[in-house]
Structures are given as structure tokens and as C-alpha cells.
């Protein structure tokens, strides 16, 4: 199955190292070699599929609390980053034994689980390589900021045979042959989104255009609704506003709407409730697609002596993903949403769960149930990548 996943990146590694150290004295070259190559894989940073003696990398996981830390054969360093964190060093495959339980259900179909393991390994390996190049003290966080690492919580040893099925296999960009940042999320809501629309930048190996995903329509997290007051929204997003609008009491929230809503409706907060200035489109409770931006309308709160003067109203455009994170991503589950007023609250109704970039986990589950293989699942969600075995 892996016969077409092979390629040799030794030459590229040698070329990068040579160009980087060409003007350096010998002692500095040796230092850079250890920093660049040594911590990743003993005996060399890169390996090809036909190099059977290559060792798997050791990944450094930053944990914010000393919960279920290392096994006897895992190294620990306390206070490496800050006083309330530790860095756990664990082999990549054993790291995945824990991640498989923190990020998805290992009891799903074999092909869906294999696809998820490969995506998780690829993401971790990409972060590891990137961290070593930047000389960071750790490679990944143990939280949703990267991938959920549970340590010894749960019986991760039972996961070893599942991880071993795809040992060392990662996704690489077709053009560069480098491991990609293999994003994944719970449910795309029916459409996979390019990273540029969410974060404003292109990621090598990840699709550059939106595409329809027909596989997650019956996901239990497909539709959601959140109710938030104007005060609550303004309080949570205030740190995202330009400095001039942050002064407490100077500005208040007038309306919020996504950039992709089918029909814009403005609402003004008067006499303790939202008053629509235009009737919203009732035919569809959701936006056409994910919002890249969110429009916020603020109005200056007049002081008693200024009540005879017109109040200044301003419109600010913010990243939809930043707004989602500020409001709580467990409440506002995606950026695919529409806003409508209801009494004293704004009702945010949406589709999907997560940023929508990369692999849709519930979609992968359904593809596995329909008989698709792991490579087919990965090709659907990462069409600009291919598979390669590194160790």
C-alpha cells in the first residue's frame, strides 16, 4: 500500500544546511548541525522510506499542569518555559497513542481512524520541524491550540496497534515534498474552507479554494445556536477593538453581522431591546458560507452634557475567527453563522464545528462507513498533498 509514498529528501536537507552555514566558522557549523538535526532524529533529521534504520522523532509537548505526566522511560523538564508548565519529551508514535483519544473516537471505522492518525502525525511533525528551525523550547501545546494530549489519562497502550498500522506515514506537499500543516476539525458544515479565508494566509499543501463536503450532513454537531447579550458580546470582543474604542463606557455595541450573510439587517439597541431597522431574510437561518470578517457597529455613549449633540457611530471590521475565539469557540462553534435580534439578545445560528480547514472528522467517519480507504479520505480533504513514510 505504501509503494507510491516514497521519496528521498536527504539531498534537500544537505542543500539547506550547506547554504545556511556556508559563511560560518567550523565551531558554529557544528553547533548549528546539532541544533538543526540532532534533536529531531538521532543520526539525521530526514529519512526516506527505504532507509529502514531511521529512528522516529521525539516530540516536546508543553503541558500547563503536571497532570498524568511521563512514563518511566519519558524525560521531563520542569520550568523549561514558565513556572506553571512542564515540557514532556515522548516518541512521536507514543504521543499519538494519547492524541487519538483526545481528538477523536478510535472506535470509528478502521479507514477513518487511519486517516485521522496520519493527519495528526503530519500536523505534529510539521510543528516539530518548524519549532526546531526557530529554536523554540517546545514543539506543540497539549491543548486545542495544537492537539489534545492526555498523557497517561486513559489506557493509551491499547491504542498502540492502531497507531502502528500507519507508522511513520505523513502527508507532504506535492510541490515541496515537505510535511504539511494538516489541519482538521470536527464538522465543516457542508463546505471545506481554504486557510486564507479563515486566517488570511495560504498554507502549502492545503486546498486554496472552497469545496463542498457531502459527507457530514448528518453529523450531531452540524447545526448550533448561541444567545448572547449586547453587553456580553461587547465585553468579550473589546480587546480586539482598536485602542481608541476600548475606553470603557465611551462606545457601545449597536449591531454585529457576518460578511457572508445573505441579507444584511441592522439592529439598534433601544429601550432595553433590539429594534430591527430592516427585516432580515427569514428563508435561511444561515449565511451562504463561512464569514471571513465580522462587521461591528459601535455608537458613542453620550455624557449628560452632550445629550443635545448627535452621537457618533462607527463601523469596525474584525476577523471572524478572532471574534469566534473571543466569544468562546465552544459556544460560537464556527464562523459559518448568521445573526438575528431576539428581545434583549442576539441569536447567532450556525453550521459546523471548528475552523473548517483541512479534514472534516465527521465527514471522514462517513467516508469510512461507505467503504472509502484512508488514502481516498485524505486525498479528498488534502488534494494538494501526497503520502510519504519518514520512519
Strand order of the largest sheet: 2-3-1-4
> How many strands in all?
18
User: Which structural class best describes the helix and strand composition?
Assistant: alpha+beta
**CA-CA gap between termini:** 16 Å
User: What is the 3D shape?
Assistant: globular
Query: Average pLDDT across residues?
Result: 75
Largest sheet: 4 strands, mixed
Number of domains: 2
Unreliable segments of 5+ consecutive residues: 1-14, 36-53, 67-81, 262-287
Q: Over all CA atoms, what is the radius of gyration?
A: 24 Å
Count of DSSP H/I helices: 10
Q: Could you tell me the strand content as a percent range?
A: 15-25%
Describe the structure.
There is one protein chain. With 391 residues, this protein is an alpha+beta fold. The protein folds into two domains: 10-187 and 365-389, no CATH class; 223-351, no CATH class. The chain is built from ten helices and 18 strands. It has helices at 10-21, 26-36, 92-103, 110-133, 160-164, 195-199, 230-237, 320-327, 361-369, 374-381; strands spanning 58-63, 75-78, 86-91, 140-141, 169-173, 184-185, 191-192, 211-212, 223-229, 251-258, 267-270, 273-276, 293-300, 313-319, 337-342, 345-351, 359-360, 385-389. It has a four-stranded mixed sheet with strand order 2-3-1-4. A hairpin with a 2-residue loop joins strand 11 and strand 12 (273-276). The two termini are 16 Å apart. Mean pLDDT is 75; it is low at 1-14, 36-53, 67-81 and 262-287.
